[in-house]
Amino acid sequence: MLLTVNELSVSFGGVHALDLSHFELNDKELRVIIGPNGAGKSTFLDILCGKTKPDSGQVLYNDIPVLGKTEVEIANLGIGRKFQKPSVFPSLTVFDNMLLALKMKKSIFASLFFKPTEEIDVRIRQVAVKVGLDKELKKIAGELSHGQKQWLEIAIVVLQDPKLMLIDEPAAGMSDEETEKTGELLLELSKHHGIIVIEHDMKFVEQIAKDLVTVLVRGKLLVEGSFSQVRNDQRVIDSYLGRANVQLENF
Ligand SMILES: Nc1ncnc2c1ncn2[C@@H]1O[C@H](COP(=O)(O)OP(=O)(O)OP(=O)(O)O)[C@@H](O)[C@H]1O
Ligand SMILES: [Mg+2]
């Protein structure tokens, strides 16, 4: 098991943001987490990457306890996070954003000076091809389209080569075409990485949900199952899919 979570709980000002009894993720599994606004989805990822300290619970990553470790320690263990809000440097080129991401990977930082520039160059180009940004490497990141900025964010996570990637709402604000490309990218990445994706766009969820979908509601696990199981579950329809904020267009 890549990730095992037990009795994970956190409150903010007395309100239970997350109260997750159990969660497991296999190596190279692609898990989609859905649920209404404020369900605790981002909070869960915040805990996994060390940004938020839970009140109680256990998180094992490859049998290593993660809680209590710093964000840097967790990143170095191999857990990479793409946040809901953009975090690229808009005034740097795509290439330099990616170079910076490589330099920030602490374990290779020391060896970076000994590596031929060509090797770094090749790695950046490989990842750029993977995310569809190979023709944009010299472009200023701030001038990329919204979709391309999201792909750069994903590229920055991929460059750290994590075993577990945490990706929060990658398709938000994307065109249909960009959304589909993002889905293909995540499916491709899941051949090599365990991935947890949070998403509201159900058409996109259907595209990428080759494994299990987890539904969170008010911090608790409501149901877990295949896409069609979850899609047809009356409790999920009542508490989430029936709501106006869910993108069910063309569904
Ligand atoms: N740092 C924080 N301080 C106080 N309250 C917080 C904090 N982070 C999250 N919350 C609260 O915890 C609850 C869960 O929020 P969270 O952001 O995890 O929801 P979400 O499922 O990601 O929602 P969305 O779909 O809108 O992104 C919300 O009530 C939110 O207001
Ligand atoms: Mg969120």
UniProtKB/TrEMBL annotation:
GO terms for molecular function: ATP binding; ATP hydrolysis activity. CDD domains: ABC_Mj1267_LivG_branched. InterPro entries: AAA+_ATPase, ABC_AA/LPS_Transport, ABC_transporter-like_ATP-bd, ABC_transptr_urea_ATP-bd_UrtD, P-loop_NTPase. SMART domains: AAA (SM00382). Residues 3-243 form the ABC transporter domain. Keywords: ATP-binding, Nucleotide-binding, Transport. GO terms for cellular component: plasma membrane. Pfam families: ABC_tran (PF00005). This is Urea ABC transporter ATP-binding protein UrtD.
